[in-house]
Amino acid sequence: MDSKIIVALDYENEFDALNLVDQIDPSLCRLKLGKEMFTSLGTNFLKQLHQRKFDVFLDLKYHDIPNTVARAVRSAADLGVWMVDLHASGGLRMMEEAKNILQPYGKDAPLLIGVTVLTSMEDLDLLQIGINASPLEQVIRLAHLTQRAGLDGVVCSPQEVEILRKNCGEKFKLVTPGIRPVGSEFGDQRRVMTPAAAVGAGSDYLVIGRPITQADNPAEVLRTINASLANL
Ligand SMILES: O=C(O)c1cc(=O)[nH]c(=O)n1[C@@H]1O[C@H](COP(=O)(O)O)[C@@H](O)[C@H]1O
């Protein structure tokens, strides 16, 4: 089975994270290592996930001058991660340099993904930072820029997937956080959908954190979501 689920391993400590990881199989999901755990545990923790044969999305959302971002992306490639991301709003030249630096890695290069508009943001949040466009308009703009730079896909909300699929084609990877099974709390997320609706819209990968990690039995919730997607 090739699951579309990427579990966001946002835990305060290694013990809790490995408690989940050691109950599941790499066929059930991929794992996302983000700012919280990478900041406290670094590459040693990443190695532990790799030792357990999981594909890892290193989600550090690089956003800096082109030279700095490209070199960070190269460091991520040297770690052997499956996917890595940067903020598309860092601009075309930043994305192009990041793509170019991966050339020597050939087929072993990680998927390079541009974050468009964070799924926690809505119209007012964009207005407050000087962007006078709806999230959808801004996501489309940044997805086109990301594609022009030659990246493999974008992070967007599932609400934008249908239109991006039409705009950017079948091969462009659409990675969607903001996934909330029916009845689960939105928290800080704003542009959300259920797992089944996101897959129905055409998401390639669903990034799911708290609905799984904060559950009483995370492994069970993961299995249930996988089962709900099996026949779609
Ligand atoms: O790049 C991401 O993964 C990301 C982008 C985005 O726009 N929104 C977003 O929520 N994420 C990440 O996806 C995960 C979502 O977690 P939950 O809201 O707990 O399901 C978190 O680890 C976020 O850092």
What attributes does this structure have?
single chain, 10 helices, alpha/beta, globular, 232 residues, TIM Barrel
Q: How helix-rich are the residues, as a percent range?
A: 40-55%
> How much strand content do the residues show?
15-25%
Radius of gyration: 17 Å
Question: Sheet with the most strands?
Answer: 8 strands, parallel, barrel
Question: Could you state the order of secondary-structure elements as H and E?
Answer: EHEHEHEHEHHEHEHEHH
- CATH fold name: TIM Barrel
Question: What's the tally of helices?
Answer: 10
Mean pLDDT: 97
Subunit structure: Homodimer.
Catalytic activity: orotidine 5'-phosphate + H(+) = UMP + CO2
Function: Catalyzes the decarboxylation of orotidine 5'-monophosphate (OMP) to uridine 5'-monophosphate (UMP).
Binding site for substrate: 10, 32, 59-68, 119, 180, 189, 209-210
